[in-house]
Amino acid sequence: MKKVLSLITVMFFLLLPALSWSASVRPGAYVSGFIGVSVPRDASVNSSQFASDGSMLNATDEVEFDPGINIGGTGGYDFGFLRLEGELSFKYSEINRITDTADGFRFGNPDGNIGVFAMMGNAFFDLHNPGPVTPYVGGGVGFATLHLSDTFGTDVTTSGPERIFLYPEDDDMVFAYQAGAGVGIALNRRLTLDIGYRYFGTSRARFGDGFDTADLRYESHNAAVGLRVKF
């Protein structure tokens, strides 16, 4: 993530001297595309499994994720100082660490991932000024489909390392929200370079059937670079 943020900073300062003219406030429809990095927060995962003796095994784990990809696009209308848009985005991260919160046991070599496909309605307020760099703030609400893969971990405390099934593969659609800020750098009257940050979160998602289940709340920090094209 540090490399991505450094690249964004360098691009900003390289482009700023060349963009010395003032960008006019011009309403119109637009589309955009963006790509960046998603850094999920640690998640508390509650899981339940039936044991071979018919008893129910319940656990609560702290799950850590690797930074992943954040990609998507938008379409909307710029009213001059307010932009209303629809957004489609996808975030993906691998599971890095799983720790049982009851006893602090950490599973070895966790194998699993989570993908998030979001459909959002956003509103952003552009803080126009005499220069080409326009800060903005805003957020949105919508829905997200979370996909959790079959997830395994290794118990290295046994006589021979044992591969253990932890969470079932499944999808769930839940409420989603985001808030953030950024800057738009006008390249010309139609093109704007967008550098932004979003905090994204969902309500609790449930995966699995009545036998093997897991649930979690997904939250992530997201940075992206995009290009807006106004018609």
Automatic annotation (TrEMBL):
The keyword Signal applies. InterPro entries: Beta-barrel_OMP, OMP/PagP_B-barrel. Residues 13-231 form the Outer membrane protein beta-barrel domain. Keywords: Signal. SUPFAM superfamilies: OMPA-like. The keyword Signal applies. This is Outer membrane channel, putative. It comes from Geotalea daltonii (strain DSM 22248 / JCM 15807 / FRC-32).
